[in-house]
Amino acid sequence: MSEANAAEKELVRDLLDGDHRALARTISKIEDRTPGYREVVSELHAHTGDAEVIGVTGSPGAGKSTLVDKLAKAYRDRGLTVGVIAVDPSSPYTGGAVLGDRIRMASNVGDMDVFFRSMSARGQLGGLSTATADAIKALDAFGKDRIVVETVGAGQNEVDVVRTADTVVVLVQPGSGDDVQMLKAGILEIGDVFVVNKADKDGAATTVSDLQEMLHMREGATTAGAGHHGAGVGTADDTGGADDADGDDWDPRIVETVATEGEGVAELIDVLDAHYDHLRSTGELDRRTRTRYAEEIRQLLRADAADLLEEELERHGGMDALVDAVRARETDPYTVVDRILDPLADCVRERRD
Amino acid sequence: MSAGQEQRTIRCLVAKVGLDGHDRGAHVIARAFRDAGFEVIYSGLHRAPEEIVQAAVQEDVDVLGISILSGAHNTLVPKVIEGLKEYGAFEDTLVIVGGIVPDEDREELVAAGVAEVFGPGTPMQETIDFVRDNAPQR
């Protein structure tokens, strides 16, 4: 026990010293949930809080990896260090995965100050966002200025992942469907910035105006018909927010990019900076951070409590036996739960006094 | 915790180094590894040794599979291994080579630190079993 403890302390020390291998090893430990990973993340926590975290999501083929590559390059040109976490799905059958986003990181070849890490969902519903949040902490403690989390916006799992970010960027490509598709997509609600990538393609203008309309509706719903100006949720050079009734709301912006050429990336960075400034000046950043920590604490509590309950379940003969008893009408689900939970509740209440 | 007992996922980097532009074999092995339940990171074509090292270090892979058909293995593979050593990553990375490697070059590669060389016609299962048996214990 004490030996493992020393090893973990050393890992943390090496990471804080800027050792790339230690950073890589720490993220593996987090992904694998190796014993001791909690202690490592706890130790790292004190050294976090300085990085800006950007989530990038969108459907497959929208150009996320290419855009992230160019974004990382642009940040590097401004003297900032960058961490990237790219999340890809894993096979529900074998658990295997091909993590292919790295191929598109060509602009940052040989630059160790861009730390790119692929992660797979490993079939853990809910657990992925915890693992990603912990990996972000590792990169933050390592000293990365900007951390980009990239994921396919396909389901709840992925939505949870981008929620770990300060700013959420949703990528849309031209011709990805009519406005009903955009109505369907839950990711429309979580975007702070929308990027119409491949803006040189046919249909880009239509996609931009569809988006504008959808975002306008979303706004109208919350600000109760404040009578917005024409293309209110407009382009990058919009001053944004100034016209709002309470001045505190962020108008989602739309940026057009051609990621393969790096076009629009500088504008995107301006908008990202503007959003972060907005978060800070309105106190929204504090609110989001608080919400995030609260969520994190709740999630860990639930997971640990669930593990403890599994143990108790086993002690009562396991789920199968209990189900048999319920089916045979010897007992019922409520009674079973009371029997398992009551002693725990008693313990907790006793300890409290 | 409950997840602590699960078997660790084996992570592999399948890499194409140098100038040969033929990666069908790399695709096939990447897919076979995926179906075996491994996490596979594919490097893409035309990578320099430094790029492979960067990827292997950052991704903390257990296995680095280098696919080479061009005949440049004697210069490129040792460069990759040197790079791994520089980052302290060589000791716990299993390095294997696949592709066209003449018999007389095998020994040299093994001496440089390659665990095994898989030539054309190697059954996929053989490679998978080798990785399962020899992936470093951490």
Q: Could you explain how this protein is built, in words?
A:
The complex is a heterodimer of chains A (353) and B (138). Chain A has 353 residues and is an alpha/beta fold. In chain A, 51% of the residues lie in helices and 13% in strands. In chain A, strand 7 (193-196), helix 8 (204-222) and strand 8 form a beta-alpha-beta unit. In chain A, helix 2 runs antiparallel to helix 5. The two termini of chain A are 32 Å apart. Mean pLDDT of chain A is 85; it is low at 223-245. Chain B has 138 residues and is α/β, with parallel strands linked by helices. In chain B, 42% of the residues lie in helices and 18% in strands. Chain B contains five helices and five strands. In chain B, helix 2 packs parallel to helix 3. The longest helix of chain B is centred in the middle third of the chain and has 14 residues, at 73-86. Chain B is globular and about 35 Å long. The two termini of chain B are 19 Å apart. Mean pLDDT of chain B is 89; it is low at 1-6.
Features:
heterodimer, A: 353 residues, alpha/beta, 7-stranded parallel beta sheet, 12 helices, 51% helix, 13% strand, B: 138 residues, 5 helices, 5 strands, 42% helix
Structural class category of chain A: alpha/beta
Spatial strand order of the main sheet of chain B: 2-1-3-4-5
Oligomer: heterodimer
Proportion in β-strands of chain A: 5-15%
Number of helices of chain A: 12
Structural classification of chain B: alpha/beta
Overall average pLDDT of chain A? 85
Rounded to the nearest angstrom, the distance between the terminal CA atoms of chain B is 19 Å
Going across the biggest sheet of chain A, name each strand in turn.
Answer: 4-2-5-1-6-7-8
Please give the number of β-strands of chain B: 5
Q: Provide a count of the helices of chain B.
A: 5
**Biggest interface in this structure?**
A-B, 36 and 34 residues
Q: Provide the helix percentage of chain A.
A: 40-55%
Low-confidence stretches of chain B: 1-6
Largest sheet of chain B: 5 strands, parallel
The helix/strand order of chain A is: HHHEHEEEHEHEHEHEHHHH
Tell how many strands the DSSP assignment of chain A holds: 8
The H/E string of chain B reads: EHEHEHEHEH
